[in-house]
Specification:
434 Repressor (Amino-terminal Domain), mainly alpha, 8 helices
């Protein structure tokens, strides 16, 4: 994905997740502790969020710590259709790659996954494999 596609995809995910958890965008913004204009522009995919806003939104939506930043760092490798709210939530509360990898191994058969979950799992594993090959952290 390019930058614009990434902004739009993240905005769609934020909008979907907040609609499931909060009765209104205004209440979500108040709970997160950011201006409603920040939430609105993020949901529309108009701008990248400040790291502090990213962390607050991730926490309020129950997403994995650093999930928004992960998408930004690997955007060129991630197909837009593989980004789901479930992927952003997967591993929530687990801070390390090892913890995330352990969480992903709980499913033992691909037939237990939906197509979206399978794509997200493959995307995660390829990114993780590439990082380990390159010796990045």
């Amino acid at each position: 994905m390019n930058d614009e596609q990434t902004l739009k995809a993240l905005g769609r995910l934020i909008a979907d997740a907040q609609a499931d958890r909060y009765p209104s965008r205004r209440q979500f913004a108040k709970h997160v502790g950011v201006d409603i204009k920040t939430i609105t522009s993020a949901e529309k995919g108009e701008r990248e969020l400040h790291p502090n806003s990213q962390r607050k939104i991730e926490q309020a939506l129950g997403w994995r710590k650093g999930s928004i930043q992960d998408v930004w760092q690997h955007r060129s490798e991630i197909p837009a259709e593989s980004l789901t709210v479930g992927e952003m939530e997967r591993g929530a509360g687990e801070d390390t790659w090892e913890d995330l990898e352990a969480a992903s191994k709980r499913v033992t058969r691909a037939s237990q996954l939906t197509d979206e979950e399978l794509l997200a799992e493959l995307s995660y594993r390829f990114r993780n494999y590439k990082i380990r090959l390159n010796g990045e952290s």
